[in-house]
Please model this.
Amino acid sequence: MYMATGTVLIIDDEEKLRTLLARIIRLEGYTVLEADSLKAARRLLEKEGPDLVLCDVKLGDGNGVDFVAEIKPRFPSLEIILLTAYGNIADGVRAMKNGAFDYITKGDDNDKIIPLLARAFEKVQLQKRVEQLERQVGKRYSFDTILGSSPRILDAIALAKKVAPTDTTVLLLGETGTGKEVFAQAIHQAGKRAGKPFIALNCSAFGKELLESELFGHKAGAFTGAVKDKKGLIEEADTGTLFLDEIGEMHIDLQAKLLRVLETGEFIKVGDTRSTRVNVRIIAATNRDLQKDATDGKFREDLYYRLNVFTITLPPLRERKKDIALIAEFYLRFFAQKTGKKIKSMSPEFLERLQQQEWKGNIRELKNTMERAIILADEEVLGVDSLPSELSSGVLRHHGPLSAFDLASVEKLHIQRVLLHTKGNKTEAAHLLNIGLTTLYRKIEEYRLTTEA
Model:
């Protein structure tokens, strides 16, 4: 038989009824607290923190309906069931508006109390789980999780903390893999929209028509296959934050619609004639030179200036070498725990090889390298033999500036390595490289890469 484990506070100045209810409820497995007045109940609420309250409406020192309005804002997870000897509709309606879980009549509804408590307790448990998950999400995406102590990353964090409490549009600049989405999440969680939706969209992952539908939504019949109305991601992000990654890849025709959202908070769905209003904060990111693109006519100049209100540039990993060991140590612990391996440290040679690399894929590439090394490792200390061949042999060891030819060679080698890692799975490879699938296909053709495992 199922036994509850919550705590119920009974508030009633009729001792016999209170004692009877307490006995019945204890038999169901609940812990029961008793109070004969609202004054005593307030003390128990502060001291014991019960999950549920059964409260009489007519009490010597107050009214249960008013008591709900008093305590519900202070204890939002607390569920309150009101008991009355003489039920009336007006009191019942007011009780529910004040936040009561239910309002029942004594005597006639005694058989309803236990099932009602069970439903109320389920709601309490669900609310506690939601609150726990929100705390975990907030902690996971807080600024404290951004690793690094180099001056440039600390400057970027300081700027992000200053803009987080506002609704200002933010433009994050930086190479692929520098952690732009992590910064966007941290800004969202540290702002007044924390707990509201955070929606991320990679603009390079869709063609123009599909991106328009994904972003703005559509009406049924707007195009072949549109059998029902669909909310776009802008609408899904209403009251929260929309993160637009690789904003520089957005088709110029769609940029005008996005500009309207930023300026008026309105947009028109595909196939619709009426505007939809939203209250959404935009955080955009790109690895392109948007100012140059705007000058060259590849990006709308008015949208660029609207996005460029507050810019934060994230440094590439090669410009924060002192952080490599710290980040590698974090992923060592993370992947060791994930795989169940007892790996304690990295050898000096292993760390030296990590420090020597240029990390064109930045933190994402280092993360993938550490995951692979953990999987391959047989000892408690990571050695160079668990590194990819091009790292263990120093193939990618570069010093000083690179020529255009070298950059292309590095990119070609890296993409080929990722394709081999994914056994030719282009969708997974594009995800690991943080580029659009169409971009990957273009690179494969340009470099004549093999996609066979």
